[in-house]
Amino acid sequence: MLERLTDPRFKAISQPSAQAVALTTQILEREPAPVIAEIGIGIGATSMALCSLLDHRGEAWFFDFEDRVTELAADLAAAGYTNIRTFGNSRATHDSYGWTLAMLLRRRRASGPAALFDFIYLDGAHVWHHDALATVCAKALLKPGGFLLMDDYDWTIAVSPTMRPSVNPTIRQHYTEEQIELSHVEMICSLLLDDDPHFERVPLGYRGREHRRAYRRLY
Q1: pLDDT tens-place string over residues 56-104
Q2: Where are the domains positioned within the chain?
Q3: Both ends of the chain: CA-CA distance in Å?
Q4: If one looks up domain 2-203+211-217 in CATH, what number appears?
């Protein structure tokens, strides 16, 4: 997987999230061995950067399709990283990382406190039916003081290079016009995070259009 980081065809996703790096750096200033999670790994750019930051401390957990996390795990192991855990879901229509997170949350609540992660980066499908569930679980799995970073706050199906109707006409069989035009991540943030008293917004320095939005769990 990591060989794609230097492939020109993947240039748009070959750089790590600067905000994920910055927030993890903040966590490391107060927690020497944090547990962090990336939900949706792309081609591993941010995954590799986070492992490098941890420098074999704590743990990095990765959630995505089974074949993707298996490939990533092999590449990270070859690079010398052993403090990683991977959780893959199938490609069944209604399976997803959201279900994987829900099962993790269920197990943790059955045995004690649910909070586990110091940092969670949610960079998944950017659609409501996957990411609303993932966000609900992520909120419960985040430790007080931990950060939740939501990717593609400004993304819509209408502007997607591969999903927009002009490129993929069959998309209208799966989404309404409203669902195509609106940002699902913005909806998730406004409905599940912005007014939650357990969370506060973390400024990321945007002066105009937001691409990512971050939150800190207060208690």
Answers
A1: 999 999 999 999 999 999 999 999 999 999 999 999 999 999 999 999 9
A2: 2-203+211-217
A3: 37
A4: 3.40.50.150
